[in-house]
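We store amino acids, tokens; thus:
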Amino acid sequence: MLPTKKLSLIIEGPKERNGYIRVSDFISEITHLISALKQTERQLHPSGGSIYYEIIRLSYASPAQIELQSTPTSAELDLREEVFSGFFSSIKEIQRKEKPISPISQEVLCDLAAMANPIGKTIKNVSISYKTDTFEFTTQFQQAVLKMLASEEAFPGFIRGMLEAINLHKDANIFRIYPDIGPFKITCHFPQELEEEAINAIGHFIEVSGILKYKTSSPYPHEIEVKSIQIFPRDDELPRFVDLKGIAPNATGSLSSEGFVRKLRDAAK
């Protein structure tokens, strides 16, 4: 049997509210923690989904404590220790204002910033613990994360992914693609002249070229200013083998099909 690996989230409401926690804050904290862990997992295992989480203990004694148990979906792929150790190492390095040894994705940084955002407002304290490690979120930590999010670089390039969402409202001209590997999603800003191509690309695997934007903390781009769109056909739009019959009737010249194949085999000897 695999050893259990547990993670605790502790949330304390403000004193003037008797330590009570808003429902929206409670849901937000646990949602962003799980999201950050899943995004950390994706950096180790791009397809994700190798770990699921269960609430095994929930207490409300100001502070509230949620104990989560992590379980691998397959005994052959147990990434829990790497995910938790890497996650804690990264947030501690950010707190110390050091550049993390392992790159952190924009999605993880956004989740961390969101967890720290209510502190000093509607939440007094938030902390997480794993084994002997405990980390307390602070407003200073949030500022360090926001600084990392603000710092970015831009390079020309291209990226491929499935276009599943588009926003044309009030000339927003934004769509998102979901690559098979690398970042979970990419926000794509496109000019008005590419609107028709963008609409036609919905539901297709595409390649977008332009100026890729990277957060300095992340190995993957998070955004692209689109210059061109190439649409790849869906599987059901590709020709079947039977469709190729008769497509090039003169391909073998004066030879029969059998004679043409025999000639090729003889030449290969």
User: Anything to note?
Assistant: The helical segments are 23-44, 80-95, 106-116, 139-150, 195-200, 257-268. The domain at 5-150 is CATH 3.30.70 (Alpha-Beta Plaits).
